[in-house]
Amino acid sequence: MKQYGVLVVDDSAFMRRSISLLLENDPQFFIVGIARNGEDAVEKVQRLQPDLVTMDVEMPKMNGLQALEQIMKTSPVPVVMLSSHTAEGAAETIQALELGAVDFFLKESLIRDRDNQEITQDFYYRLKSVAEAKVQVKPQVGNSKSKEKKKIKSSHTELIFIGCSTGGPSALQSILPRFPKGFPIPIVVAQHMPPGFTKTLADRFNTLCQLQVKEIQNGECLLPGTIYIAPSGFQTKFEKKAGEITFQVIEQTEEKVLYKPCIDVSLKSAAPLFKDRLLSVILTGMGSDGMQGCEIVKKNNGYVFVEAEESCVVYGMPRAVKNAGHADGQYPLSQMYQEILSFLK
């Protein structure tokens, strides 16, 4: 049984103890050390070489974001942010994910629900996946060749759908800002996040992108030149009304699914409407969300690209789609934008 050494970083003695006790309830985790602020964290990451770091945001001397940036430069290691569920906390969490943090959890929920087996087991599962994650220090140079590139040309694509989970925000940052102003095809993104965080994600990308970026509202029409972020805590479906494609944002669907938003749910509704005019892109993420949806995309003659293992933080979702035989192309993140453009020509 593989074990993972964890450095717990928090300025609160209560939180350090609570997080340590929670982690030690799983025999695969052991605490290699604790840090009370960012400076302490940077030094102990170098000296103790943990497999994983849990990082608070607000701390004296050096905060969690500053410490994360230093760690990524000097001693890259998987870092998980423990976030407060506030508007300010959400904004800081999005920044942390851009800086290289591989996942985040809501601190209060972890402590409050520590006796809930389903929540704690999900926490342990995700941490173990994170501990095995590849930390991307900087964008890769786009000079590697895809081993299974297919010559697909399409001049009539009407929707680009991007699905991602763990590692997704930083992956999206390498793609979405590159789409030029006036790009005619709408882009819809489903990123796994807790409720309340996708609005902040959309607002953040709206400052970085040349296209308008917004969180999807129930009933609004799909328009060109816009990047839409599916809202967390809900399912986003596509429907056709009076000749226009609109979004249906609902709390639950007939089928029971783990994620909100769920990539499978969105693609299953999009594929029959767009058929061969749909390009689906599955990026980094743990689990297999997107596999069933991509199967429906292929049955409706749509196209599917997946991120290559070499650039994924976690290769779970792209691997599931590829292994099921639904991928038309597999590309490293550094090439994905150019491959999308080449496909559209």
Automatic annotation (TrEMBL):
Localisation? Cytoplasm
PANTHER family cross-referenced by the UniProt entry: PROTEIN-GLUTAMATE METHYLESTERASE/PROTEIN-GLUTAMINE GLUTAMINASE, PROTEIN-GLUTAMATE METHYLESTERASE_PROTEIN-GLUTAMINE GLUTAMINASE 1
Q: What is its main location?
A: cytoplasm
Species source reads Pseudoneobacillus rhizosphaerae
The UniProt record lists the EC number as: 3.1.1.61, 3.5.1.44
Gene Ontology molecular function: any one? protein-glutamate methylesterase activity
Protein name as it appears in the record? Protein-glutamate methylesterase/protein-glutamine glutaminase
Family, similarity comment: Belongs to the CheB family.
Please outline how this chain is modified post-translation.
Phosphorylated by CheA. Phosphorylation of the N-terminal regulatory domain activates the methylesterase activity.
Name of the gene this protein is made from: cheB_1
Keywords of the record, alphabetical order, are: Chemotaxis, Cytoplasm, Hydrolase, Phosphoprotein
